Known about the structure:
This protein is of the alpha/beta class. It contains ten helices and eight strands.
Amino acid sequence: xxxxxxxxxxxxxxxxxxxxxxxxxxDYLKSQGIxxxxxxxEQIKTLSLRDCATYFYEQYTIALPIEEIxxxxxxxxxxxxxxxxxxxxxxxxxxxxxxxxxxxxxxATATDRELVESALERTNIGRFFGEILTCTEVGAGKExxxxxxxxxxxMGVNKSECVLFEDALHAIETAKKVGFTVIxxxxxxxxxxxxxxxxxxxxxxxxxxxxxxxx
Length: 215
């Protein structure tokens, strides 16, 4: 496959990190002396950081500015991204292969920039990406195609010349609705949606090590 641009999700796609998000919302609320409602993870898992903070502000009447809530959420997992996060098997080799072929690469993630930059520094893959786009900065979560369209604009490539690497069902649904070619990557956090993801995506791989489209 010959392409000119590649958009990468980060958590669950390039990084083994989705497990840290399973409890971050409840951990933050508990730190504020609040008992989280049952099923909280399902309620917030598709939200951007700002939207999550707004949800907490409105639903749990937290008497803090939304920006301070955002900082508090980030602080609960900052150490993980700075000191513990690791790459998925095959991630480095895939990025090196695309770089060698002159493919422009961009990150499009719901994770906040500070955490992204910490993870890129720890894993030493920041050099591969010309731009980092976050849902918070773009102003919309991945239920909206804005972040993907913005990545195309920045890279200056046509949609037909670009592939999107993703693991989350809601993001894959969004991308396919607007005509992106999607390479889905398995992650345990999305195991319950595996059948739907395989049906929707143009390609599906259980590991980045299996991808030979660019050989």
